[in-house]
Design goal:
The protein is an alpha/beta fold. It has helices at about 15-25, 110, 115-120, 125-130, 155-165, 185-195, 210-215, 260-265; strands at about 35-40, 55-60, 105-110, 135-140, 145-150, 175-180, 200, 220-225, 230-235, 240, 245, 250-255. The radius of gyration is 18 Å and the shape is globular.
């Protein structure tokens, strides 16, 4: 970061500028396109002054305050890590520049059920490797998949999507759904809030911390989105069935034959 080390992460190469931009949004350093000035790969990353294309130097826009030293990671983050190097859960419960609770987004359950299939159809690297997570941003007005990014780390995939949205001048991403091919962890809920995305949907379970934060922030959190079934853990009022809003209680389900068990809604994320 302008010559100062901020963080080291394990990632799948590609879309590195978006990854850096999205990470800075997630950390609350920037929130609009003008906040991000330039990014360049650094030569001299090796002893012979070679360029490994693994070190990125970012310059912030005029007047943007540099990251607070408390944001620096003093260890290498793994591809699965969203909290590594943070001193406590409380330190990542950051206030977002955007508000998602007042977003008028409404999505029919039938349309929501199509998102995992649409996401999977575009996972080209997963088709070759079988080992990457994906995150996609959908425009609910048109049903269009605006952007999809893959990475070995689910947090990186989401940061790349958020970085794309920032660089395209699309933050806050109001009226959009963030769809992920993984669990919905606390960190992913936080990233969605920081980007002004009102709904996060996942094919697997959320953690209890994720559900609590989603409820607190007014973000719609959907888990176990598979086939025609899903479980809404927060702000279920944004989901309709044949035009009628479903029950607004946390843990609501759009399948009358299904229930949201305690083990599902309280599954803790170790990271």
């Amino acid at each position: 970061m302008q010559g100062r080390s901020l963080a080291v992460t394990m990632r799948s190469p590609g879309h590195d500028v978006e990854l850096a931009a999205g990470f800075l949004v997630s950390e609350g350093v920037i929130h609009q396109r003008d906040d991000f000035s330039t990014a360049r790969y650094c030569a001299g990353a090796t002893a012979d002054d070679g360029n490994t294309y693994n070190v990125l130097d970012v310059a912030l826009g005029p007047g943007v305050a540099p990251p607070d030293p408390s944001l620096e990671r003093d260890i290498t983050m793994t591809s699965a890590c969203g909290l590594c190097g943070k001193s406590s859960i409380d330190s990542v419960r950051m206030k977002s520049y955007f508000t998602v609770s007042d977003d008028p987004l409404v999505v029919d359950a039938a349309d929501l059920a199509q998102l995992p299939k649409a996401l999977r159809a575009q996972q080209t690297v997963f088709d070759r490797t079988g080992g990457l997570h994906a995150a996609g941003l959908f425009d609910t007005m048109t049903g269009e998949l605006l952007v999809l990014r893959e990475d070995v780390g689910r947090h990186n995939a989401v940061d790349k999507v958020i970085g794309w949205a920032l660089l395209q001048g699309r933050l806050p991403a109001r009226g959009c759904v963030l769809m992920v091919s993984s669990r919905a962890s606390f960190e992913l809920v936080q990233k969605a809030c920081m980007a002004g995305i009102p709904m996060l949907a996942a094919v697997s379970a959320p953690s209890s911390l994720a559900a609590d934060l989603a409820e607190e922030a007014g973000l719609t959190l959907v888990g176990f989105l598979r086939g025609e079934t899903m479980v809404a853990y927060a702000r279920a009022d944004r989901i309709t069935v044949d035009g009628t809003a479903i029950a607004g209680d946390t843990g609501s389900t759009t399948d009358d034959d299904s229930t949201a068990g305690d083990d599902d809604s309280t599954a803790e994320d170790a990271r």
